[in-house]
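Hi V.,

You were right to ask for the full record rather than a summary. Here it is.
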Amino acid sequence: MNTRASDAETTSSNRRANPSQAPVRPGRSRRAARRRTIASSYLMLMPALLLFGVFMFYPLLSAIWMSLTDSSGISSGEFVGLGNYERMMSDPAFWRASLNTFLLAVVSVPVTLLLGFAFALLLEKEVWGRGLFRTIVLAPVVISGVVVGMAGRWIFDENVGVVNAALEGLGLGTVSWQSGGVPAMLTVLLMLTWSRVGLAAIIYLGALQNVDESLHEAAALDGATWWQRQRYVVIPQVQPTTFFLTVIMVIETFQVFDMVFVMTGGGPGRATELLVTYAYAEGFEARQQGYGTALGVVVFVVVLAATVLWWRAQRESEEAQ
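Predicted structure:
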């Protein structure tokens, strides 16, 4: 007993003399390991965070600040607070551009989804002329909006356009596609729909290939027609894809610029003016970059709201599953 006591006293005195040999508590060790893991994670994320901050956060904060000034783009301008946004509320051109953008989204998105779904059903089947049909539908997916706008300008040209030439050949008379407000907006709608229907068809085609074939077979055995199978089997199965495409295309509609700028430039008489083209005109043509940036911030808020809506709906769908 005396020997054990002396050994314990010796061990205790050695620990006091050399603290590094003291046992490490498990909780402290886990906290240290966790801190090292967090530090290494941030270290690996640092290049991406740095690029994201330089090319995203800094321009965004700069744009918000500029929207609070009366900058002309040459000088920094004076701080006006919410003056640009107050001006926006009483600006008829802003409301006209907002209405045009909203109408374009309300009309073009459903039409694009409907045609994209129909084309996906056709692309899924072996039909005559499938290759040519794919080229016509999918070509706008791989070309820029500027090229689409130039093609639309040539197709609907009032003097040498293909459409007016065909109408005149049929004895129906020509249409003022570029000088008339409603026809000009119709050309924008048609070209925007054509430029996006291929993307919708591709995404729908992937969704259709994931539909369980046994559901089709069971519906056919129950006597369901082709239309009934599409309505009660296919459409519910591709509903998440439809919602995804709706949000994406609404966002794209609020960002349309190059095609409209090339085709109509927002005219005639602001008939095809959209929020983005109006922001460009105010910021770079009228040299009122403070006001133009405020318009851009409004577009950003709308796009952010649509993105948050899609994210929340996606999360609720995953939780429900």
